[in-house]
Structure formats: structure tokens, C-alpha cells
Amino acid sequence: MGSKNFFEENDSNMKNPTFAVAEELSVAENASADKKAFGGCETSKKKFFTKHDFWVVAFLLAALVFSIFMLAADSTEDELVAVVRVKGKIYREIPLAQVEEPYELTIKGEEVVVLRISSGGVGFVSSGCPDKLCVNTGELIKSGQSAVCLPARVSVKLVSDTDGVGKAPDAVAG
User: How many Cβ atoms sit within 10 Å of the Cβ of residue 23?
Assistant: First the structure.
């Protein structure tokens, strides 16, 4: 018996009818377990696209269309106005559509601040503050964007001309 190799030993097991019956029972038990796992169905065919999937896809498409519509509406904004504040008070309101040539506005206060104003936007060019976060903010080009130099106490915010600068409260506290 020790002289049989692996293949001869497996061939002798295949000829044994008891081994073949045990294997068929094992396969039948697995099929029965699969049948229980898939809700009693003999086959485990599942629909690729269900009614629930349809509603999820429809909702996502509607959200996408709405987002595109809102972005398109946002790009057709009214005239932008740069509101420059120093120490919390309005220093200057500059309608950007009226700016023909870009220019620099120097504000001397706690720190010297230079703003670059163009028809496309406004931004800090330089500041005497140590961290230069205001300069690193970049150019403001959309309504609602703002930049602040805290050490100089200077802020710039872009608003749409329909926002009513200083005419309505930003929020109501109760």
C-alpha cells in the first residue's frame, strides 16, 4: 500500500461506490442549502434593474439637472459691487462693471493694505500684516465671496447689486 502514488490512490477511491454516493449526497446538501439561502428558489436569478433602482436613478438625474440649472442661473448674475469696509464701517462701494481699467486702491489704517480692483474682481495685492492670509485668498469674482485682513481691520465682500448693500439684515436672531 505504501508503494501507491497519489494518482493511483485517488483512482482507487473513484472506483469505490461508497465514496461516489457520499459525494453525491454532499452535492445535494449544498444545493439544498443554496435553495434556502436564496429564498427557496431553485435558481438564483436576480433582476439586474428593479423598480427601486429606477426611482434612485430618476432622483439622481433630477438632482443633476437641478444642479446644472442652478449653476447656469448663478453665472448670469447681476452687476457685482465690491464693498470695502475699514474697522467695520463701509469705506467704499465700487460697482465692478463701471471699472474700465484695473487700478490699485491703497488703504492706510492699522496696516497699509493695497487692493487691486478690476471689472472681473477684486483682491488684496499686499498688506503690512505678518501672515499675508488676505493676499493668499486671491481674487474675488463671485457674489458672496469675501476676504479679510484682520490686523489691518479691512474686509472686502462682493455682492450683487440686487442684494441691497446695507439695506436688509443678513439674519434675524430671535
Answer: 12
pTM (2 d.p.)? 0.52
The DSSP bridge partners found for residue 157 are 83, 146
C-alpha span between 157 and 148 (Å, rounded): 9
Pick the CATH number of 80-160 from 3.40.50.150, 3.40.30.120, 3.40.50.970, 2.60.320.10: 2.60.320.10
Tens digit of each residue's pLDDT (9 = 90 or more) over 10-66: 555 555 555 554 555 555 555 555 555 555 555 556 677 788 888 999 999 999 999
Domain boundaries, the chain: 1-46, 48-76, 80-160
Phi, psi of 121 (to 5 degrees): 170, -170
